[in-house]
Specification:
The protein has 193 residues and is mostly helical. Helices cover 66% and strands 0% of the residues.
Length: 193
């Protein structure tokens, strides 16, 4: 990633922490939660690796085809999952994961094809596609953030709520926060393209 080193390190920390939490979510009793968490862990750790500041570590030339392969396989898996699930269940999350993996493929391809893997502002990538991805992830971040805001507060149960007995892997609000942080990370990465 090109840009200020402090932003790069913050993004690495955010994405790595998100990937680690997604690994914890893979211990869920719900199979769909485990499957989604596995894909999100790949995204989190992949984003963390791609976000390392270029001034600190310049990946070797073979790293970009590896990123293309990993994220291409994740995109194919998302497509396969969407195809095999019923229309009602294959909704927003799987489509969002597909868009995210394809965005990572796009960023890896642009970086691999750019001369000496260095970006000049405004000269790399297809501006229309980058802009479309920026708009998509900005809308995603805003709507996801709005879903995290509590609508009403139940003051009677002593703060227990319905999620009090749920394990770390089964907390929907934490899963949404995880996806929100990866959306913010994706926005930051796309801005530096």
């Amino acid at each position: 990633m090109h840009g200020p080193a402090s932003l790069g390190w913050l993004l690495v920390a955010l994405c790595a922490a998100t990937g680690a939490y997604c690994l914890l979510r893979m211990r869920s009793a719900d199979e769909e939660q485990r499957r989604a968490a596995g894909g999100e862990a790949v995204m989190g750790f992949g984003m963390a690796a791609m976000a390392v500041p270029a001034g600190v570590f310049t990946p070797p030339g073979w790293a970009w085809p590896v990123y293309l392969t990993v994220f291409g396989a994740a995109a194919a898996h998302s497509l396969w999952t969407m195809r095999s699930l019923s229309t009602a269940r294959a909704g927003g999350h799987h489509l969002h994961h597909l868009v995210g993996t394809l965005a990572m493929v796009y960023m890896a391809a642009v970086t691999a094809l750019s001369p000496s893997h260095v970006h000049a502002h405004g000269s790399s990538g297809v501006p229309l596609l980058t802009g479309a991805l920026l708009v998509y992830f900005a809308v995603y971040v805003l709507t996801s953030g709005a879903r995290l805001v509590p609508v009403g507060v139940d003051s009677g149960a002593g703060g227990g709520g319905s999620a009090s007995g749920a394990g770390w892997g089964d907390r929907p609000e934490l899963a949404r926060a995880c996806r929100l942080s990866m959306g913010i990370g994706m926005l930051a990465m796309l801005i530096t393209m």
